[in-house]
Structures are given as C-alpha cells and as structure tokens.
Design brief:
This protein is an alpha+beta fold. It contains 3 helices and 8 strands; from the N terminus they run βαββαββαβββ. A hairpin with an 8-residue loop joins strand 4 and strand 5.
C-alpha cells in the first residue's frame, strides 16, 4: 500500500507571507497544532471586522509578552476557524475606534506562551495552559484605504 505524502514549505521567520483565505485557514490550523515551532512568523491577511475588540486577559498577556492594561483581543473572527488576535498600545486604541463592520488588511505575528492557572481544586499547584494567538503589528488598510 502506498501512502501519498505532502510537504509544506517551511516558513522563514525573517520573511512576511501574505495569506489568502484558504492559506490563512491552513496556516492558523497548523499554528494551533504546533505553536512553539511556528512562533514569531510575520504574515499579512485580510478579514472582516464585525465584532469589537475587548480587554485582553492579564495572564494571557504575561504568557505571550504583551503589555498588561494596554492590550486588546479579538476572538473568532472567521467561521471556518477561530484564533485570538491581539493588539497593544496606540494600535489597540486605533482598532477600538474602527467603525463596524469594516474590512481590514493587517500585518501580524504569531505568538506562543504558557500561563499557569488553578482551575481545578484537585490540583495543589497551578497547571500549565498554552496561550497562542496573533499580534497585529500594523494596520495596512481599512476598507481598502491605505493607512
């Protein structure tokens, strides 16, 4: 019995890659499966912003090295997959001011970290929980207008 194998080109962490919808879905799914290996990869993508950013969890920020109290999070903005997108500082404020719905093109970077939480009283010590998401580094376009 022969087995068909496919290979994917390893993404260079020093290059930025633009993903169309299908490529982005595959990329995010792979990142969610092996986040440490795919950490710190820059990419650009476009998406419809149809819900507001919210304040990011303190422990999530600590885990992936973002500024506590200056970071916002957007969850599950695609129907085919879900992923947390973060932004911090001035960029967070800019994203909070965008009128909904809007089409965004952004440059982002994959982020990975571990937080420790005590969610179950059976454990004496906090248990590790993986935090993975994408940090928006720059807004390239809003509704087709370059920024």
């Amino acid at each position: 019995m022969s087995r068909k194998t496919t290979t994917t080109k390893k993404l260079n962490k020093n290059e930025s890659k633009h993903f169309d919808d299908k490529e982005l879905e595959k990329f995010i799914e792979r990142f969610k499966k092996i986040p440490k290996r795919m950490e710190d990869i820059d990419f650009t993508c476009e998406f419809e912003l149809s819900s507001e950013f919210v304040s990011a969890n303190e422990k999530d920020c600590q885990a992936i090295g973002l500024r506590i109290g200056e970071t916002v999070r957007l969850y599950s903005w695609r129907s085919s997959f879900n992923c947390d997108f973060y932004a911090e500082g001035d960029l967070a404020e800019q994203l909070l001011d965008i009128e909904l719905p809007s089409k965004l093109k952004v440059m982002a970077e994959t982020k990975f970290g571990i937080k420790y939480e005590c969610e179950n009283e059976l454990f004496d010590e906090p248990q590790p929980d993986i935090v993975k998401g994408c940090l928006i580094k720059k807004i390239l376009e809003i509704n087709g207008e370059k920024q």
